[in-house]
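agent: user wants the structure for Sulfate transport system permease protein CysW from Geotalea uraniireducens. delegating to structure tool.
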Amino acid sequence: MNPIGGLKPKKDRIPGAELTEPAAVRWLLITVALIFLGLFLLLPLAAVFSQALEKGAAAYFAAFRDPDAIASIKLTLLTAAVCVPLNLVFGVIAAWVIAKFDFPGKSFLITLIDLPFSVSPVISGLIYVLLFGLQGWFGPWLQAHDVKILFAVPGIILATIFVTFPFVARELIPLMEAQGKDEEEAALVLGAGGLQTFFRVTLPNIKWGILYGVILCNARAMGEFGAVSVVSGHVRGSTNTMPLHVEILYNEYNYVAAFAVASLLAMLAIVTLVAKSLVEWRLNRERQPVPGNE
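agent: tool returned. relaying tokens verbatim.
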């Protein structure tokens, strides 16, 4: 007799068979999920594009010819172009150290990497105000040497780096921990150097994880609002990224231009989602066992 509830296991159950819910329950859950998806994702996206094109294509494209809009797009792309490579380098190094070595303070380092996930982006921006503001720790020295961090491009980049640096590392750490270090140790035993081992053994195994993390990091960098809003100063044509430019246009009741720029952000989000799905599909495909090699 089975000690759990006094029940005997069914002998005719197929090992590994999954339990399935009744058809009515499945369709109910699917319907609820689709309703939430439509209300909270598809409907807002449709509203953005509808408002952007309300006065026709001419007004829509005119919003992107505005010098302030062009400047915000350039600054957004510049910020992402600087932050993503830096976070990529940090993420790979951090994941390598955490997955391949044991050392005191390892758990504390992982906690620090997760810190931006738990801290409000506004608080992240205020940290830089505390550090680089006129009354901050380094403010007097920066002012004496005519170095501008706050209300300038460097402050925007620093704030964006802070809120985005966990993405690549957090994708690679579990992946590299699951792979272990047997292949790297075998390569070293066979005479390969450290860089040769990384580029020929480690990198091919984590390339899709890197791409996945880069996609998420880039999406957050281009869409970041809270931290950037605190450190930017909202200088039109100078320190406004695309999200900040949308806010200014909306507050000025220039709805068509605001939703036009917002639609561009939405399209970037959709492209990011498609790229993310493709990478997930490729990762799942590579993880499937090859027939005959199970």
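agent: one observation worth passing along. Residues 1-11 have pLDDT under 50 and may be disordered.
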